[in-house]
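INFO  loader      accepted 1 record
INFO  loader      residues=164
INFO  predictor   begin
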Amino acid sequence: MIYYLIAFIVFLIDQGTKYIVATKMQLHEQIPIIGDFFGLMSHRNTGAAFGILENQRWFFIVITVIVVLAIVWYLQRIKNGKNKLLPTALALVLGGAIGNFLDRALNGEVVDFLMLNFGSYTFPIFNIADSCIVVGVALIILDSFLDMSRQKKKQADAGSEQTS
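INFO  predictor   done
INFO  writer      dumping C-alpha cells
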C-alpha cells in the first residue's frame, strides 16, 4: 500500500541522514549552509521535542509503540477512502515516529542535526523524522478543518433540499 511506502521512505531518509551525521561529523560540529540562518550541527537528544522530558527513554518507547499501533490500525480503516490527505499525513507521522523510535530503542538518544537561527535565537535542533511528524500533524489539522467545511456544506445542501 502506498501509505506504508511513504512511511518507509520517510524512515529510510531519516535513518540515512542520521547515519551520515553520526559517522561523518563530530558531536557539536557545525556546518553553515545558508549563512548563520541554516546549518547542520551534530547533536544528541535524550528527550522529546525541544529537549523536554530528558532521559525518559522507556516512557517514549511505550508511547511510541502505542502511537504506531494506533496509526497502523487507523490507516487500515481509512486507506481505501476518497480522502488521500489524512492517510498521507498519518504516513508521514508513522515514518517519523518509527525513525525516532529506533534511535531511542537502540541508542537511548536521537540524532538531531538541522539548525535554524533567527538572529540571536537558535531554534531547537531537529531531524528529518521530527520534520515529517510536524508536517504530518499540520496536515491532520488541515484535514480536520477541511472535513468540518465539508460537513457544513453537506448540512447546508441537505437543508436547501428540504426547503425546496
